[in-house]
Amino acid sequence: MRQWCVRLAAAATAASFLVSGALAPVGGFEPVTAGALPAPASPTSEAVAEQWVNPMLRVGDTGAVKLTELTVTDNDVTGTVEAPESLGTQAQIFLAPPVGDLPSAFNLLGLNPEAYPIPGPTFPVGQFHFTFAELGITEPGIHAVLLRVGEETTHFLITVSPSETDSSSEATSRSEAAGAVALLWPLAADIPLVPGETGTAPERPPLLLRDESLMAELRPGGRLARLLDLYPGGHACLAIDPQLVDVLSRMSDGYQVASTRPSPVEPTVRLRERWTAKKDTSSTPGQGAALAGEFLARLREVAKNRCVVALPWGGADLTAATRAGVLGEALDASVLEEELETPVAKNLVVPSSGYITPETAAALPQGTGAITGDGLTAQLATLGEHPETVGYTDPLTRFRYAVDSPAARRQSAAAAIQFARQTADPTTTPPPVVVPPRLLEAADAAMLAQEVPDPAQLTVPPYEPATPQVDPTGLTDVEITTAAQQLRYAADLTNLMVEDPNIAVTPEEFTAPLRRSIVESLSLYRRRSIDLHEQATSATRVKLDAGRDVLQQLRRSVTLLPPGNVYTRTSNSSPVVIVAQNGLPLPVEATIHAESEDATVALPGTLWIPAQGSITTQLTADVPKQKEQASIKLWLANDAGAAISEPVTITVQTKGSNWWVWLVAIVTALFFVVRLALRRRRH
């Protein structure tokens, strides 16, 4: 097997793996730092609107001027511009002076026409073709281009090499010596899992998906199928979401499409209701099992002897995962090696947010490297139908990227890659890394394959600590707090159950999917898009709510079933019979605790409540003679004394305790008998 293709350029400690120098403010502004937002907020809300979009940038642009086609070759620009007739029929090109770094170029795309003082040609709206000379491009570097129709504009970037403006042998030599760049090739999907899964053994539980959107991506011509077709090979690293491979493996064995998941515990149903109680939720067999198996087989073949890098599980935000206590689950990539039968790069993380906070860095294993965001990655994040806002750019440079068409943004990304290659020095520094959006679209993947046909070997350098910018896209305090709370509940549930050699599943295996669901609720997929942010936060809420509901059902399935609201005994020494029920798939060890102001309660010892069964036990309650009855509150507790069931209250009374009632009745009866006898004697 060929040597591994990911190298750590130098040794470094986990303490140094914070956020790379790529987080230096784009454009020279002073860094502004902030923690997570307290709660989800719409990108248009006053509290966060300016963290998403600087209102002073691209003033008046609505996206009405569209570049539907745009091709830049060695010395030519060809394209098609569309605009409403109300804006006019003539278009004009303007240029900004060339710049020498990607952050400055990124900034120019957001600036207003005043930053583009160099006039270019005027032409009718529609198709156009110009040489660099006709556009007025005479210097090498990265050029920002503004195309104007009426009062609206669209922007894109062009990179010009020295050889394209200077025919000298020296310029040609410099161009040919341009360095290579490394490339991550993402394979990930926003998978429509039905949340609330629990573990089973020896087989895994049935896979439930909300819809067939994943199948559509696997079909010939679908997004994932095209990404695998376009993979350039060589040193290009497959950056794979382990959740995708896990789901594809299960999907290939068959799955169901359903909107909800059946309860993991058998509900307590009264006898007369058993015939009408619903046993299951409606579902239909999934149609994509064969496609999933074929895709997984192709991926397994493509990944052989290739560089494979694991992305965080389900696109999880590592900052949120650290705070919630599920960082280990978020970085678990074991399924990749199991299913793909190939090694995966160790001690390397590619954070979904593009940065790593000091808190996360301290939690990573010693010697872990990270690929974080920079000016190139920020430009690539704007690709696709739903461009992303990244938290490592200066908020003062952010604008609504969708005012430029996908074709324009694709050209800007291509120009950024070309510039990175031209300015890379292969003799002194590791090659730049091209990190596309996780949910890369096929058209953008085709551009990447063209621009990086022979990627360099991935080398991960150590990086200096830095602090992220204001990031309105991340998980909020309330979401992280909810996730952390659910993790504690899941841990309590795990500790509540006891392993049984006769039962295949273990407590950890049963609750593992619950912990994984918590990780999946922390996903950043689609959350960084201003257009999809609210939809993504709603999906997070649905996942967290479903996790809460399942955990509550599981906890409530371990309970006490009292004999009734009032328990009547024949004597004060008669025991009170009570049933402890367990709806979990493993036995539970618990003790009964009691609280009463009126009675002294003698409790049984530790109970072993069988899996999905019940046990009958008894306790005694000494009720004082002067009391007619006593109220007792009972609940189950673990070995630490913490309650594990809802309390139940019963009232205990003894038949003999009502002697005075019988005495009054007897005296009254004797009175009437004597009175009746006297009346008869008189007559």
UniProtKB/TrEMBL annotation:
Superkingdom per UniProt: Bacteria
Alphabetically ordered keywords of this record: Membrane, Signal, Transmembrane, Transmembrane helix
Transmembrane segment boundaries: 659-678
Signal peptide residues on this chain, from the entry's feature table: 1-24
Name of the molecule in the record: Secreted protein
Organism annotation: Corynebacterium pyruviciproducens
